[in-house]
């Protein structure tokens, strides 16, 4: 790739490509919800045109046990509602990655966030 796209691998060009990329590290589910509550002003001020949440499943799989499933689903519902609001209000695409998990009984795979999340997105 370096030989084919030489211009993109120069330090100055990489800075230009990433100048408008804003990264927020949110290691747990609560931080994701709080971050989404506060991001609206950034969407306006910085004229953000794409919102990506990489691996939403990770903190939700590690921060909640079986007894907290209703709380987890409630938080996922809040997130889905916020993301739909931002997509519709600001006319921006919202991309959320999920994880795949194995279902041992049926020897198949499924989305890690479950059926509720699958019905929340469009």
Which stretches are poorly predicted, pLDDT < 50 over at least 5 residues?
none
Order of helices and strands: HHHEHHEEEH
Number of strands: 4
The helix-and-strand class reads mainly alpha
What gap, in angstroms, lies between the N and C termini?
35 Å
- Work out the oligomeric state of the chains in this entry: single chain
Q: What is the alpha-carbon Rg in Å?
A: 18 Å
Global geometry: globular
Strand order of the largest sheet: 1-2
The major beta sheet can be summarized as: 2 strands, parallel
Beta-strand residue percentage: 5-15%
Q: Which range best describes the helical content: under 10%, 10-25%, 25-40%, 40-55%, 55-70% or over 70%?
A: 40-55%
- Average pLDDT rating: 79
Counting DSSP H or I runs of 4 or more residues, the number of helices is 6
Structural account:
With 122 residues, the chain is mainly alpha-helical. Helices cover 49% and strands 11% of the residues. It contains six helices and four strands. The strands form two sheets. A two-stranded parallel ribbon has the order 1-2. Strand 3 (100-103) and strand 4 (108-111) form a beta hairpin. Helix 2 (29-38) runs parallel beside helix 5. The model has no long low-confidence stretch (mean pLDDT 79).
């Amino acid at each position: 790739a370096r030989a084919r796209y030489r211009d993109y691998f120069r330090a100055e060009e990489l800075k230009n490509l990433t100048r408008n990329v804003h990264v927020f590290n949110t290691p747990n589910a609560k931080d994701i919800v709080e971050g989404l509550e506060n991001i609206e002003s950034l969407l306006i001020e910085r004229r953000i045109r794409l919102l990506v949440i990489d691996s939403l499943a990770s903190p939700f799989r590690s921060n909640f046990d079986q007894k907290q499933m209703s709380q987890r689903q409630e938080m996922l519902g809040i997130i889905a509602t916020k993301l739909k609001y931002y997509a519709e209000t600001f006319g921006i695409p919202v991309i959320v990655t999920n994880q795949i998990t194995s279902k041992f009984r049926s020897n198949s795979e499924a989305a890690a966030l479950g059926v509720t999340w699958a019905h929340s997105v469009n």
